[in-house]
UniProtKB/TrEMBL annotation:
<dbReference type="Pfam" id="PF12662">
    <property type="entry name" value="cEGF"/>
</dbReference>
<keyword id="KW-0325">Glycoprotein</keyword>
<dbReference type="GO" id="GO:0005576">
    <property type="term" value="C:extracellular region"/>
</dbReference>
<feature type="domain" description="EGF-like">
    <location>
        <begin position="435"/>
        <end position="476"/>
    </location>
</feature>
<keyword id="KW-0677">Repeat</keyword>
<dbReference type="InterPro" id="IPR026823">
    <property type="entry name" value="cEGF"/>
</dbReference>
<dbReference type="InterPro" id="IPR000742">
    <property type="entry name" value="EGF"/>
</dbReference>
<dbReference type="InterPro" id="IPR049883">
    <property type="entry name" value="NOTCH1_EGF-like"/>
</dbReference>
<keyword id="KW-0106">Calcium</keyword>
<dbReference type="InterPro" id="IPR050751">
    <property type="entry name" value="ECM_structural_protein"/>
</dbReference>
<dbReference type="InterPro" id="IPR009030">
    <property type="entry name" value="Growth_fac_rcpt_cys_sf"/>
</dbReference>
<dbReference type="InterPro" id="IPR000020">
    <property type="entry name" value="Anaphylatoxin/fibulin"/>
</dbReference>
<dbReference type="GO" id="GO:0016504">
    <property type="term" value="F:peptidase activator activity"/>
</dbReference>
<feature type="domain" description="Anaphylatoxin-like">
    <location>
        <begin position="6"/>
        <end position="38"/>
    </location>
</feature>
<dbReference type="InterPro" id="IPR000152">
    <property type="entry name" value="EGF-type_Asp/Asn_hydroxyl_site"/>
</dbReference>
<feature type="domain" description="EGF-like">
    <location>
        <begin position="392"/>
        <end position="430"/>
    </location>
</feature>
<dbReference type="GO" id="GO:0005509">
    <property type="term" value="F:calcium ion binding"/>
</dbReference>
Length: 718
């Protein structure tokens, strides 16, 4: 389906007459199919691909390894050489690395890849980048008079009237990459539609309409930029049903339950799934309903007695709820309270205009009356002697104020104000003047360090290590080192002091005296690789008595190669093999019916019958491996296989001896290569001698090889 959608996108571009260009945002497979369908095979540039010739049938097996030494049957190499080079296992680099290998098109070949370019572009010498073909991109300039149409856009080619000497400046397009123009005798470069002039005034770069928002794609479409233009792609062409393209151009799931695109019924619950949704039957009901036979039915609270109606009320059931109806009715002018009692309605406050203007409303039991207004003054005023207007009452002069002791009364229209002394403020709750806490009201602005409130004022204090300066607000540092408080060295710091000790000593708990530092105890094995010995004011590193010597840095223990310096005790018939911290004396002897062809290899002299030739090793080879106890498991320690290898080879690996504690195991990497690996951690130093047998099946015959591997597990390096 994805292949068809990408091909449909290419056919659509071709039918609309747009340029067929690749876009890395579609990915390599989709972009490749889109170009193939868009170009229709007419202008697609197919690079020459060299293919391997088909192998001719022969009884001789095909050689699949690079080694030409036919005398070798066992080989050991690094882990990087374990790849299988058999035909048919080609790696598609174009599919694996997408658009990172080639600028335009990447075409996979057997064992490699090729880069190609779009029409009107040529491949550069680096084999990966493409540039426009200069033979097909020239711009024709008119030498006769021409008129610029008013509808021409700034990005269209300009037709300029030029003189013969001005024409020479634009000869061969002058210095311009696209269009050369002569404006007032000077060369001016412009660009084709879909391009913009670069900072150098000569080169042109593609205008990304998708990035600048100059495209006409709708909200449900994806804008794809091309060289000099753009095109719009519907989200559904790229994303499957139930998915949408996000800002990062990745197909993400649409939550139909949140976007209300689901079709679930009223009593169903929508659950979002990847690319779709599902509807589940609701198992719970709304308050006032209960689940019965799979449906929510109303609960009759009145019948069950679960209502909350009072004694003077009757319960009336409703759909999903209930209400309480009073047993008795109240007369006009009364209102029933929640207890069922009838209370008088104050029409003077409940009605918007109970009386006409000029009349005063007086409430009565069950009704109200209207009386003509008399002059009523508000609080703080009283009527004058004539009773025609209200005048202010001077509470301070008449003594009806409530100012406390020490307060000053000031009359105001209709009221009065009690003022407090400086440093105090009025408290309306206690109707008295209380002290102002300047330290709380102005934190950090009155004193540099600490502000302490006093009745009607405040004063500043300083922290330990400071003293108050002459202005009474700021604090200045005290030099405590003048009194010699430290046993060794003293450093004055702002507001305090610091005692410190000389090298090899540390400050005691009292912060004043110094004591010797035990570097070995505090370092936890970091200073020395083996053993740390504390000395007054310093430390020394030591190594094991045998097998190691101190390195030049004075901290690391270096292994002594007893075999190289001749301090071993191996006999002349033995071979000295150095290991970490020691050495081993090894003796390599060939069994009967074998002859020694090298220091580490024995070959079989003869075999007696067919079974003997297949089961007894044709070659015995000795190997030595040295590892430390902190090796990470599983660890590949030995690689074995025929050399050279041929198609059809098959091997069987077996550890015949030396693996009684099951520390090691074997595994095949392919039909002709295997490994021996350490599968369990060896916690203590230990020596192993493994007999690893390899049976090689080649052209219907088994051949046996034996590798005797000395494995020395030593303690990790000091």
């Amino acid at each position: 389906q994805q292949c068809c959608d990408c091909c449909h996108l290419g056919l659509r571009l071709r039918s609309e007459g747009k340029t067929c260009e690749s876009n890395i945002n579609l990915g390599y497979p989709c972009s490749h199919v889109m170009l193939s369908c868009c170009e229709g095979g007419d202008h697609f540039i197919h690079p020459e691909i060299k293919r391997h010739p088909e192998p001719l049938p022969t009884v001789t097996p095909e050689k699949v390894s690079e080694t030409e030494d036919h005398n070798e049957a066992l080989s050991i190499s690094n882990e990087a050489e374990l790849s299988n080079n058999l035909p048919g296992d080609d790696l598609d680099e174009c599919l694996l690395y997408g658009g990172e290998l080639c600028q335009h098109l990447c075409i996979n070949t057997v064992g490699s890849y090729k880069c190609s370019c779009f029409p009107e572009f040529i491949l550069q010498d680096d084999g990966t980048s493409c540039s426009p073909d200069p033979d097909r991109g020239q711009v024709t300039r008119l030498e006769a008079e021409a008129t610029i149409p008013p509808s021409a856009s700034p990005s269209q080619p300009l037709l300029i009237v030029s003189l013969q000497e001005e024409e020479d400046k634009c000869k061969d397009n002058g210095p311009c990459k696209h269009i050369c123009n002569i404006v007032e005798g000077n060369v001016e470069c412009s660009c084709l539609a879909g391009y913009t002039i670069m900072a150098d005034g000569i080169s042109c770069e593609d205008l990304d309409e998708c990035l600048t928002g100059a495209h006409a794609c709708s909200r449900g479409q994806l804008c794809v930029n091309t060289l000099g233009s753009f095109y719009c792609v519907n989200h559904r062409v790229i994303c499957a049903e139930g998915f949408i393209l996000n800002r990062r151009r990745k197909c993400v799931d649409v939550n139909e339950c949140v976007t209300d695109r689901h079709t679930c019924q009223r009593r169903e619950h929508c659950v979002n799934t990847m690319g779709s949704f599902k509807c589940l039957q609701e198992l719970s009901c709304q308050p006032g309903y209960e689940l019965k036979d799979g449906e929510c039915v109303d609960i009759d609270e009145c019948e069950r007695g679960t209502h909350s109606c009072k004694v003077n009320f009757v319960c009336q059931n409703t759909e999903g709820s209930f209400y309480c109806e009073s047993k008795q009715r109240c007369m006009d002018g009364f209102l029933q309270d929640p207890e069922g009692n009838c209370v008088d309605i104050n029409e003077c406050t409940s009605l918007p205009e109970p009386c006409k203007p000029g009349f005063n409303c007086i409430n009565t039991v069950g009704s109200y009356t209207c009386q003509r207004n008399v002059l009523t003054c508000s609080r703080g005023y009283h009527s004058n002697e004539e009773g025609t207007r209200c005048i202010d009452v001077d509470e301070c002069q008449t003594g009806v104020h409530r100012c406390g002791e020490g307060q000053i009364c000031h009359n105001l229209p209709g009221a009065y104000r009690c003022d407090c002394k400086m440093g105090y403020q009025y408290d309306a709750f206690s109707r008295s003047c209380i002290d102002i806490n300047e330290c709380w009201n102005y934190p950090g602005r009155l004193c540099q360090h600490t502000c302490e409130n006093t009745p009607g004022s405040y004063h500043c204090t300083c922290s330990s290590g400071f003293r108050l300066s002459y202005d009474g607000k700021h604090c200045e540092d005290v030099n405590e080192c003048d009194t010699s408080p430290c046993s060794q060295e003293c450093a004055n710091v702002y507001g305090s002091y610091q005692c410190y000790c000389r090298q090899g000593f540390q400050l005691a708990e009292d912060g004043h005296s110094c004591k010797d530092i035990d570097e070995c105890t505090q370092s936890a094995g970091i200073l020395c690789t083996f053993r740390c010995v504390n000395v007054p004011g310093s430390y020394q590193c030591a190594c094991p008595e045998q097998g190691y010597t101190m390195a030049a840095n004075g901290r690391t223990c270096r292994d002594v190669d007893e075999c190289a310096i001749g301090t071993h005790n191996c006999s002349a018939a033995e071979t000295c093999y150095n290991i970490q911290g020691s050495f081993r004396c090894l003796s390599f002897e060939c069994p009967s019916n074998y002859r020694k062809v090298s220091d580490m290899r024995c070959e079989r002299i003869s075999c007696f019958n067919y079974l003997d030739c297949q089961n007894t090793p044709v070659r015995i080879t000795y190997y030595q491996l040295n590892f430390q106890t902190n090796i990470v498991v599983p660890a590949h320690i030995f690689r074995i296989g025929p050399s050279p290898a041929y198609a059809g080879d098959n091997i069987i690996l077996t550890i015949n001896k030396g693996n009684e504690e099951n520390y090691f195991s074997t595994r095949r990497l392919n039909s002709y290569t295997g490994i021996v690996y350490l599968q369990r951690q060896v916690k203590e130093p230990k020596d192993f001698l493994l007999d690893v047998e390899m049976k090689l099946w080649r052209q219907g015959t088994y051949t046996t090889f034996l590798a005797k591997i000395y494995i020395f597990i030593t303690a990790h390096a000091y």
